[in-house]
Amino acid sequence: MLRAGLIVVAVLFSWPARAAPSSAAILVYHRFGPQVADSMTTRTEVFVAQLAALRRAGYTIVPLATVVDGLAGRVPLPPRAVAITVDDGHRTVYTDLLPIIRREHLPITLFIYPSAISSASYAMNWAQLQELLATGSVHVQSHTWWHPDFRVERRRLDAEAYRQFVRQQLDKPRQVLQSRLGVKADYLAWPFGIHDAGLEAAAKAAGYQAAFILDERHATSRDSPLALPRYLIVDGRGVSGLIHSLQAGERSANGAQP
Question: With contact defined as beta carbons under 8 Å apart, do 218 and 32 qualify?
């Protein structure tokens, strides 16, 4: 009887097991095409094969907003959630990725720097971005005004000029995306993944709810919402390499050895 009583007391007063943090994989691509034109190009056939492999492996492709809200505890986050982002606004997003988006009903978030749109020869134009938005699967967000290296600018400018520079780089894309596309840009991709506490504070003051860096790991509920990691995906990672990276990242996020 005494033994049974001790067991009951032990159960009543034992600490609950700590729940594993929520986690999700965020992928970032840049350019697409039939051939590898540069280090940031992923062949379209490789991308399509990666989508199929993700689904076979039990991953669920969700909008980036679902990941952000899920990590914050605002909505349920499906197990093995994956969000796909594409940076820079390269024209191959329209020529090569758009047919896949339409066929697959694929949720994609584009991070663009508006100074290039309808201006740089490599970039999309505003009409093409409107067409992408019209699919209902694409969201457009901020990649700053012209994709600077903040480390270089901080060395080049005095303190007040640098503060003004950062403010412009964060504020202007939100204004332009709103006026050109009717888009409220709440998310920011840090150029080159560069960020620090001061930049995060500036992003928060500018009205951004989430921002994204580059890191070879899952985003978890432990991460700052203004420094959520993304896997940089290039053609050389391939199909099996992508799945291996995500499985290792998932184990690490759940506290297991990679």
Answer: no
Six-digit token string for 147 = 């994709």
Work out the burial of residue 4: count CB atoms within 10 Å of its CB; fewer than 13 is exposed, 13-18 middle, 19 or more buried: exposed
CA atoms of 229 and 37, how far apart (whole Å): 26
Task: Give the model's pLDDT for residue 254.
Answer: 85
Q: Is the pLDDT of residue 192 over 90?
A: yes
Measured between its terminal Cα atoms, the distance across the chain in Å is 46
**Integer Cα distance of 32 and 235 in angstroms:** 9
Tokens of 238: 């391939």
Does the pLDDT of residue 11 top 50, yes or no? no
Stated pTM of the model: 0.90
- The pLDDT value given to residue 257: 41
Listed in sequence order, the residues at least 6 apart from 137 whose beta carbon sits closer than 8 Å to its beta carbon are 101, 102, 105, 106, 107, 108
**Minimal CA–CA distance to 32: which of 233, 191, 193, 230?**
233
Domains of the chain (ranges, CATH numbers):
21-141+212-253 (3.20.20.370)
Locate 56 and state its tokens.
Answer: 């076979």
Structure tokens at 156: 């080049």
